[in-house]
Amino acid sequence: MNKENKWYLDDSEDEEIDISFKEYDLTSAPNDFNIKTIYDFIESGVLKIPGFQRNFVWDIKRASKLIESLIIGLPVPQVFLFEEGRNEFLLIDGQQRLMTIYYFVKQKFPRKEKRTELRRIFAEKGSIPDDILHNKEYFTSFDLKLSEKLPDAPNKLKNLNYSTLGDHKTAFDLRTIRNVIIKQNLPPEDNSAVYEIFHRLNSGGVVLKPQEIRSSIYHSPFYEMLFRVNLNDNWRKLINRPNPDLHLKDIEIILRGFALLLDSKNYKPSMTKFLNNFSFKAKSFTKESIDYFEDLFISFIDEAINFGEGAFVSSKTNRINVSAYEAVFKALAEKAFKSKNTNVKKAIRENLLALYEDSEFSEATEKDTAGTKNVQKRIERAKQIL
């Protein structure tokens, strides 16, 4: 996305992600798993395919060619897995291939208009529930769509599905795919290794945004809460965007507010690394804490709507000022957070306008927004003025 077309104002995305030289203690080992084993891994949850990684984008013709290649014994590209724990693997690269296999065995192919929703369901459930799988609004039959080789020599696999493969079914089930399993040898302090691997493997083709990668690697009940509150009507009005962002930037905005509310004392550039570390910590948040954070955020936006719709959107550029939002969120919610209640400060529109007109605050939101000095300055001025 060109910077001129961004719907948010934030220069932290321009940071270099590889801020400092760092060596990792990793091992990688190749394993040839057959199709049946790979399917069983996905179905049982041993192999996690992050639903928020990216939508399934292949059409049925491309997916059919992969299945054909496997049946007739042609090699297919290897996939990369990250070993999170004993019998716990996270898919880093190869989602389109493995999801094609999963859908083919299920004999269902996802409808294009439902793939974003299916991505969410898969992330939350770890698989597709039967009631969704057999719903024609979500899926059509996965019959192989293959072109004829020659007019007088029809492709024997055309229009077949998993249950009608006949003699080819056993060969398909036993066909292997090379899986490179990567393991971090020392206990991870921040899980940065898997982020770096994911980022570098996905640097070609469609480049993923930092939050897309982050949401895959650090997905947790806390992240599920972020996705829930992101749909709140008052939140959508405050950022003047009726629909969630496909690249999850609105999720990142909410995440930044929570990260600074809970962990600002540990903030230092880059913002990307700070959010990664916070997301890693958030995987251990208790259900009780997450429920409280959700109630706190809802109380905040229910109060912040008094600022007026589009309160965090610049009237001149129509962009969301991310730096302003996170400072306002911390200023209004911090006292309630420290007291472990949801009594956020009152949102007075005149005070918000005064904050936006404050020269020190404006200067801290216009350049070097991820610098420690400017982050602290924005928070300080927001507390004083609001």
UniProtKB/TrEMBL annotation:
Residues 35-218 form the GmrSD restriction endonucleases N-terminal domain. It comes from the Bacteria. InterPro entries: GmrSD_N. Pfam families: GmrSD_N (PF03235). This is GmrSD restriction endonucleases N-terminal domain-containing protein.
